[in-house]
Amino acid sequence: MCFFVSNSIRSHNAKTFLLTNSEYWYTDKLMSYLLTNTKRDWKSYFNFILVDAQKPLFFAEGTTLRIIDSNTGSMKLGTYSGQLQQNEVYSGGKRKSDKTLLNIRVFFSNKVHVKFFQN
Questions:
Q1: Structural domains of the chain, count
Q2: pLDDT tens across 31-57, in order?
Q3: What is the pTM of this model?
């Protein structure tokens, strides 16, 4: 399903992102398993990836944003304060602090409903 949704959204020049409360090691194992038959790395389906988001805190005051080394699964030392970059995996963060995420209006949750944002 992720494959079809991501390709459909991207075909309209929209950005895709994965936001999860799970840590990177778990997200990597799960997404690799779910997308085993696709011949692409699961991270290539998303423009931005944020793990360990600590929702709903992510949508309010947020947490410290750090970069994850996707080869080792470890957090890089220090904090990150710039714009989100494609092909990076981040831990934590805050929606309102990044212009990349401010324009997102629809968020598909791990629940069965869709949440709509208000700025």
A1: 1
A2: 888 877 777 888 888 888 999 988 888
A3: 0.74
29-34 long-range contacts (CB < 8 A, ≥24 apart) are 31/2, 34/2
Q: Could you tell me how many residues make up the chain?
A: 119
Does residue 117 form part of some domain?
no
Structural domain boundaries, residue 61: 2-106
Rounded Cα distance between 50 and 52, Å, is 7
DSSP annotation string for the chain: -HHHHHHHHHTTT---EEE-SS-HHHHHHHHHHHTGGGSS-GGGG-SEEEES--TTGGGTT----EEE-TTT-PBPSS---S---TT-EEES--GGG-HHHHT--EEE-SSSSEEE---
CATH number, residue 85: 3.40.50.1000
What would the two tokens of residue 97 be?
A: 């602090």
